[in-house]
Amino acid sequence: MNLTYLCVLCIIVHTAPPEIIVEPGHTTVSIDDQLRLACEVIGVPEPSVTWAKDDINLEFDQRVRVLQNNTLIISKVERTDVGHYKCIASNYLGRVSSEAMVNVNAPPVIVSASRDITVKTGATVELQCLVEGYPKPIVTWFKDGRSATPGPRTSFHNERTTLRIEHVKDGDKGMFTCLAQNLVGSAESNIEIKVRGYGPRRPKLLIKPFDMEAPQRTSIEVPCKADGDPTPNITWTKDGVDLVQDQNHKINSIGSLRLFNISFADSGVYECTAKNIHGQESARGTVAVLGDVLEQSPGDRFVNLAFHEASLEVDRAVNATINSLFGSDDKIMNPEKLMRMSRFPDVVARDVAKSADIFERTLANVRKHVQAGLKVNLTENFSYRDLLSVEQLDLIANLSGCLKYQTKPNCSDMCFHTKYRTIDGTCNNLQNPLWGSSHTQFRRILKPIYENGFNTPIGWTKGMKYYGFEKPGARLVSTSIIRTNEITSDEEITHMVMQWGQFLDHDLDHAIPSTTKESWEGLDCKKTCAYSFPCFPMDVPPNDDRIKNRRCMDFIRSSSICGTDTTSVFFDKLQPREQINQLTAFIDGSQIYGFTNDRSFILREVQTGFGLMRGGISSNFGKEMLPIAGADEVDCRRDLTESDTGCYLAGDIRANEQVGLLAMHTIWIREHNRIARELRTINPHWEGDVLFHEARKIVGAELQHITFKHWLPYVLGPKGMDMLGQYQGYDPTLNPSISNVFATAALRFGHSIINPVLTRLDDNFTTIPQGDLSLGKAFFTPWRLSDEGGTDPLMRGFFAVPAKRKMPKQNLNDQLTDHLFTSAHAVSLDLAAMNIQRSRDHGIPGYTEWRTVCNMSKAESFDDLKNEISDDEVRNKLKELYGHPGNIDVWVGGILEDQVAGGKVGPLFQCLLIEQFKNLRNGDRFWYENPSTFSPAKLTQIKQASLARVLCDNGDNITLMSRDVFKLPELQSPKLLPCKSIPSIDLRLWFECNGDCPGENASKEMEELRSKDALAKVMNMTEGKLEGLRSVVDGLKLDIKRLRREIRHLTKASNRGCYDDTVKRRRREGRTWVSKKCTKCECRNSQILCKIKSNPTTEYTMCDTSILYYKSLYSSIGNNRNQLFIDNIAPYIIFTNHNVYLYYNGIDTVGKGELTK
């Protein structure tokens, strides 16, 4: 049998539709970077892959290509590459796609900006500044270098891209700058506004020459200023002959004539003429040059002249300083210049200091003119009262502005002053309203010690001996006994103890430096080693191991306050020189909110009405940064070779001093805004000012609680906290002002615990790619905050890394004494030497005097110090430097003491800190533990506050935290815990009932009771209770506002009918029905109108449809022209979104008014 075999080959083919297994992800890239978008697909048959951008297929070239694995590559990314990218995979079985959004980080570009414009007074002008960029740029406006702020005539629109000024005035003219900034870069545009009057007009002299007398060899100014359109040309004649300008005769920019080094030939009649095409106007004055024979008293002759000269001298020196600091184009800043810029006072502080300077210089000029040859005999015991009357001194004081800062503030607004602090600290103590306020003098515990008993510091006269020995130079003391290059880590506290101390210090004190770096003799303090006010340079010892090419380090004295030093003669007393504290004394967040109303205003976001502080660009995590400061508000100068990021604006002018401090400022502005936003959610009826002050009040309480309960125990130790004691209540007899020794010496203990490196840690607590920062690179580099990881790496470094431990021979690290700033062509500054020199400048008594104050043992020999300074070698070095214990500077003695048990200061600084902090607590009417400040329930919540919680809430993305940020994590269990485990303040306790608190579930009985109570208030009004009536009306207005919000939320009407919330359905137009609330309702014009069906028993009833009925309010109140009649008020009032309709006796045309409140 033949068998035939059939072999069949069967092939089974598996098919599958496309599937994307690796999808492209949303990403953000920078310009010139490479973009990679993955798109891995599977499917049978193999899918084909295409790429599209914004639904348009991509065209490929050398820059845009697709790899074999379907990954899209775009090289050298451009701004136009932003868009939606789609990967599309398809075969015959199907088609799938996946989309990714690509953003391109691009610096701002101003695509359209207004041009320079000339407007008439009274007109409205809009300045446009349209910008592009990613992340979305923040726009900030400046006028003449200062932040532009909204006001009655000024407003911002379209996310600040439009600045509108209404009813333009002459003062609005100037240079406006639009600054657009994001994390990638910035752009700016300048627009000049010129303001002219009401059209062409002839000249008018606004200031005219007048007759004057002046002695030979002096300089005077003959005034002349004119207005007109076109701008008039001003010319001068002398005795009818055209005046030719030369080195002794000059016409300034406004038209005044300046005569220099005058002689008898300059006597004559001077005529000023202002002329344009529409006419001219002239005025004349006589100048008499005085000889040897004078009949008037010297006081009468020279008050105005001496003042004028003093003003010119002070202004010249101040302007020279400003121009030197801020007017140069130097890209590389030397450290001295950077330090002076960071300390240079703002406009208000300069005004305070200049007043004293001008007053003092005027008096000096009077003496100079007298000594120049007048017939008045002078002795060494010179007395201005021999020359000047009380009236003349009064004139000088007023001219200089000195009296302006001696006036008592008005504290009559008790509605405000019983609830909130003022920004400048005034009116805290109602009996002594200037105590603790800004721009007042430091408090003295001991009388100052000046070399001449009046104003020259110890050491001013070289060679003078004290206790038989000369005072050693500050730099010599620093290099011999203070500095160290060895570091020992503390075994308990973190570096956050140091950073909180600096942040706190900038809330409490800032001595205003001199407004000029030049002496009145014209010496530049940077270039001279002579002692000539305000120059007080620090001598460099001959064998200094660092400074070889200079004999001294420059140092400028602090300004004095009016009424002390030379100016004290006006106040009929002789008072030694006292320095000015620019800040408020209280722990009130002045480093956040500012210390004057003007500074506070530019820091606030007032236009939104939400009570917020102004923010700037956003971090990579979307958190707000500080706003950018204007050129005239600058606290530091960035190094343009490193970055063009501007300096940041904060309440204290030193915020940019070092990047860790700047990060702390950023954290706390976010904390204020977080609280303000939450309070607005809880109390939507609160206005912007209420939200601001309530949030500020909570922030101030947090600062006080953290300082006293969490920070001070590590500083003072357990015994010190016992000495501080518990809060016993407000004491109005205590002056909380900052003591001079506290600001100048005691609080500067923190310099001894500063690490030379700022550690920066990522979320895994490992060093960030940019690395840690040496102190030299941390100063004046605000750009590092935005460009190198934000706030979190710095904050983690502060609470995870130990502070430096102060040892007997390890006091200040040499980064602070030899490398405080790094710069290629300059000498670094010495912080220790500056501390010593500042205490001498301020007339602070020596170390041994303060030991007596603090009940420490008397020290007549250096061995008497062994209980506090136990190291024999240190005491021997003190003896070698000072010769006698009485010579030791207070900061040096205090910093060298052994630390008290459990604390970080010695017994002297412990005593001085306790004295000040006790006064700050007990002398503050708004102290957070004062029962009148917070209710018990609110106080309980305030006590939940901690710096750990604040960092969790306001860091960029902090998720793990130690419970106590001042204590090393390894000493805690657990070391770190999730932020959700850190207690927080429950702000719901700040809910304000607004007088009614109806609530959705309120009972009818309670509603009826509240209704009757409200009407009873009205019915019981008498003619003398109009004020009470106003409060009731105000309450009704708030009811209207609340009801309006509820109606807007609840009523969902359309043109086809009405939405009835009681039954949760829509009713047709024209439909009528009977409500369960004893009313008949109708849907008319998309509104539900209800009328009372029967006489209700209550005075008014609230229907479910949120329409309020007022029934039978009948009374006549008052009988004068200000009376308010409430007589047979309409059966009901209807509230719509925009209007109030009053229905009276069934007629709906009685009244209609705009709902404006």
TrEMBL record:
Protein's cellular compartments: Secreted
Location of the Ig-like domain: 18-103, 107-196, 203-288
Swiss-Prot/TrEMBL catalytic activity: hypobromite + L-tyrosyl-[protein] + H(+) = 3-bromo-L-tyrosyl-[protein] + H2O; bromide + H2O2 = hypobromite + H2O; L-lysyl-[collagen] + L-methionyl-[collagen] + hypobromite = [collagen]-L-lysyl-N-S-L-methionyl-[collagen] + bromide + H2O + H(+); L-tyrosyl-[protein] + bromide + H2O2 + H(+) = 3-bromo-L-tyrosyl-[protein] + 2 H2O
Superkingdom: Eukaryota
InterPro entries per record: Haem_peroxidase_animal, Haem_peroxidase_sf, Haem_peroxidase_sf_animal, Ig-like_dom, Ig-like_dom_sf, Ig-like_fold, Ig_I-set, Ig_sub
Binding of heme b, residues: H751
Family (UniProt): Belongs to the peroxidase family. XPO subfamily.
Name used for this protein in its record: Ig-like domain-containing protein
Organism of origin: Aphis glycines
